[in-house]
Every structure is written in structure tokens, then in C-alpha cells.
Amino acid sequence: MKYLIGIDLGTSGTKTVLFDEDGNTIKSHTVEYPMSQPQNGWAEQNPEDWYNAAIQTLRYVTQDIDASQIAGIGIAGQMHSLVMLDENDEIIRPAILWCDGRTGKECEEITERIGYDKLIEITANPALTGFTASKILWVRNNEPENYARCRHILLPKDYVRFKLTGEYATEVSDASGMQLLDIANRCWSDEILDKLEIDKSMLATVYESPEITGYITDEAARLTGVPAGTPVVGGAGDNAAAAVGTGVVEDGKAFATIGTSGVVFAHTKEMCVDPKGRVHTFCCAVPGEWHTMGVTLAAGLSLKWFRDNFCTEEISVAKSMGVDPYYIMDKEAEQSPIGCNRLIYLPYLMAERTPHLDPNCRGGFIGLSAMHTKRDMLRAVMEGVVYSLRDCCEVLKEMDIIPNEIAACGGGGSSPLWRGMLADVLGVSVNTVTSKEGPALGVAILAGVGAGIYADVRDGCRRVIKTKTQQEPNAENEVEYKKYYEVYRMLYPALKDSFNILANK
Q1: What is the mean pLDDT of residues 310-321?
Q2: β-strand partners of 18
């Protein structure tokens, strides 16, 4: 039996998982690290923290096994963050993270230099503060001495890859989020690079996700316990890796994540682009294919915000029972009817991405009256998040991308109530898979393809991914939810001007 390793490099920590070739988890270990915010709206990390976490977790999962049976390694990573190295491969400055919002002026500069329509045509996305290109320009505009020293630009997982293999490499799914890739042709865009005056030699070689990009060096072998010469494949950005880890690798399949943010991710063999830029189109981890992705910024965050501010009693009861507070909150929300006694929640606590692209919109309860109870508000928060995910699906539908089944992921996916809402509001079958390893399993499958254990990505998923639960939509509930969703859709246009006035007070 061969082993496969998946490394999931997140914002709060790195998790490394050792799998057998059937996708069973053998060992797992996580190491956390800090994030710094030197100014309001900024977010940075030390790339050495990622590498040290990878070393520690690899060393843990390779203890007490026959390491010679490790067939390959894949790395999933937080996307968009900027790592800059000098001519001696030393880190020039802390990495600017995906959630850093300092680059508004640079986004305007990118749009002006390239043109909005041309930017959508080549990169399939408008200029956003989260993407890497605007971060590169910010360093050039604000730290010219650091930019002058830069010889290599890498993404987080690709920095760890470099330290493990000595290779400057990336792959198409993660590179798609840099805003420098020609998404249709899956290569760096010379036109974008020329107009932004970015030297192409600073960028890594682009591979497909299952391709071998390098091999564990002698030094990395000594530190990790992984044999020298073990292949490391391209891997994937976090959501593309999660897609493989949930079997979303063919048309008609999608996944919905209710984590801190919410995501609807749909696979597509043909490249489809929303000309309004409301959803992302990226290359996916299946060679030669793509995915589209809608994002709502405060999904699980909305419920966490409500828990932290209004659910002291539920937290106390949960502690006495030895259960998660969300379990108690679910039970309370179940006692409120669909529509929450005519109460609607707008989940715009952190502004919104899909479909509004509005940094000024904010959350709220609409229809609140003295009759409402905490359980109504709890359920309204959950319903509002699902309505926001339906907004994402409506954009996909305009693009003729219509999933017939959705895998539920993230913390919200463990809630039977939330899964039922998803099925009823979206009108599709909602399932969960047996493995909870998501991105780590996805890149382990990619490693298995690169190592020749699986014929291709779909073969790997067929052999490894198993369904745990299946939730079918309830026709009566669908009708009832639709009434409230239609009201929900009316609220943002009605409140948009008010949001803008409040933002500028």
C-alpha cells in the first residue's frame, strides 16, 4: 500500500495529512501561526512560518511509517498572497495576504492601464484588492527599494514548494488568482505583463495541477523524513483543491462552502466568463478545464457574530452538555418557521462580493418587530446566508452553468438544518462526503495522479470520494422559501443609496 501526502496551507495554520491510496486518513497534524495587521485593513504573514509548519507537520506524519512507500506530495494553499524573494532567495518583506485591502488605488491603476473589458477578456475577472497583481504594484509604488530587490514572485504554497524542491513553480488554479494569467490559454499573459511593466522572469513556471513540479531535496528529506526524490505535484489553490477533495470534477457538480465566507464553486469543461465580473472564473485542477466561483463574504461569520454577541446562554448550556454551541443554536432555529415570522437578514457584515461587488453595503435585519424572538433571528441569519448563496447560483445560471448536485462543505455543512435549507432554496440534491479533509485530500489525489496511482483526476475521485449524507429538496419548502427570497432580492437595490451615504458619513 502506497502513501500520499496532502499539505493544506491555510491562513491560520498548516495541516498535513497522510493518506493511503484509498483515501483513508492515516495520520494528521496541524501547526498554527500568527497573522500581523500593521495598519488597519492590512494583513501580513512571515513565509518562514509556513515552511516551518510544513516541516513540523511532515515530520510528524512520517514518523513510525515506512516512508519509502510515500508516492507523492500535493500542496493546497491560501490564494493570492504575495511572496517576494531577492537574488539570494531571501524573503524581502512579509507576505501581503489575500485578505489585505490596501490596494484600492492599484486596482484603479490596473483597470486604467489595461481597460476593464480587456482585463475581463484575458484574466476573466475585474481588478480586486485580494488579487496578487495589485499587491505587486503596491510594493512598486510604496516600497520601491523592495521592488528593486525582487527577483522571484511566488504564492504561499509555491514558496513552500520551493523550499522543499528548489524549484520555482506554480500551477494554473492558484496562478489564476494572480490576475496575470491568460485564463483561456493557461499561461502568463504577455499583454498584461507588458502593460503593468512586470518582468516575466520573476514569475514561476506554470504547470497543470497533477503534473510533477519537482522532487524533495536531500536537505528537505533530512528535515521532514520524506525520502529525497519524492515527487511534488502542482497542487491547487484552496478552493480548487477542495473541489477535488469533494469529487466536484465534472459538469453538473458543484460545492457550497459555509465557512467564514461562503462559496459556490461549479465545475465547467468550457470556459465561461461573466462580463460583469460578479463571479470568478479560474482554471481548475482538472487539466484543460475551468471552474466558476461566487463568493459571499460573511457566511459562517454571520452566525459566529450572532453567537458571540447574543448567545451567551446557548454557549453556557452547550458547555454543560459537552456539545458545540452551534448544535444548541440549530435546535433553537428549528423552532422558527420558514421565513422566520416574516424576518429577513442581509449577510453583508463585511460588504459583499457576489453579486453586488459593493464595499459599502452592510448587514441588517429587515422586518424586525416586538413579536420576534432570538430563535427567529437565528434562523433568519441562516436563511439570509443561504439566500446569498442562491444569489451566486443565479449568476451561474445566467452563464448556463446549472449544477444538479451540490456537496456541502465547511462548518455549515455539518448542520442538518443548514443543509436542508440549501437543498430547498437551491432546488438541488445536497450531499456530504465521508472525508472531512477537503483540500488536503484533493491535493493528495492530485499527487496520486502524478505518481501514476490513478489514471487521471476523475479516476482518483471515483476511487476515493464516498458520499456520507444525501439531502433532497422538499417541494413544499421550495415554494415557501421562494416567497422570501424574492423579497430578499429587492432589499439591496432599495438600500444601496443608504449604504453609500452611511459609508461616507
Answers
A1: 95
A2: 5, 27
pLDDT in tens, 366-407: 999 999 999 999 999 999 999 999 999 999 999 999 999 999
DSSP 248: -
Question: Cell 465547467, residue?
Answer: 268
Helix (H) or strand (E) holding 8: strand 3-9
Structure pTM? 0.91
Of 215, 245, 211, 309, the closest CA to residue 76 belongs to 245
Question: Is pLDDT above 90 for 503?
Answer: no
Query: Using the 8-state DSSP alphabet, how is residue 352 labeled?
Result: B
Q: Which residues pair with 44 in a beta bridge?
A: 36, 96
Give the CA distances from residue 433 to residues 26, 255, 286, 410, in Å, rounded to whole numbers and listed in that order.
17, 11, 20, 12
345, 383 in Cβ contact below 8 A? yes
The pLDDT-based confidence of 83 (bands split at 50, 70, 90) is very high
Phi, psi dihedrals of residue 47, rounded to the nearest 5°: -55, -25
- How far apart are alpha carbons 238 and 223 in whole angstroms? 25
Which residues are the active-site residues? 238
State pLDDT tens for residues 405-452: 999 988 888 899 999 999 999 999 999 998 888 899 999 999 999 999
Residue 106 — φ and ψ, nearest 5°? Answer: -70, -35
Pair type for strands 262-268 and 290-296? antiparallel
| Burial (CB count <10 Å: 0-12, 13-18, 19+), residue 458 | middle
Q: Exposed, middle or buried: residue 334 (CB in 10 Å: 0-12, 13-18, 19+)?
A: middle
Give the cell for residue 327.
448544535
Peptide bond between residue 210 and the one before it cis (omega within 30 degrees of 0)? no
CA 50, distance to chain mean position in Å, is: 18
Residue type, 101: G
**Per-residue b/e over 378-404, b at no fewer than 16 CB within 10 Å?**
bbbbbbbbbbbbbbbbbbbeebebebe
Mean pLDDT of 246-266: 93
Query: How many angstroms separate the Cα of 176 from the Cα of each of 80, 171, 181, 275, 442?
Result: 9, 9, 6, 17, 18
Sign of CA dihedral 296, 297, 300, 302: negative
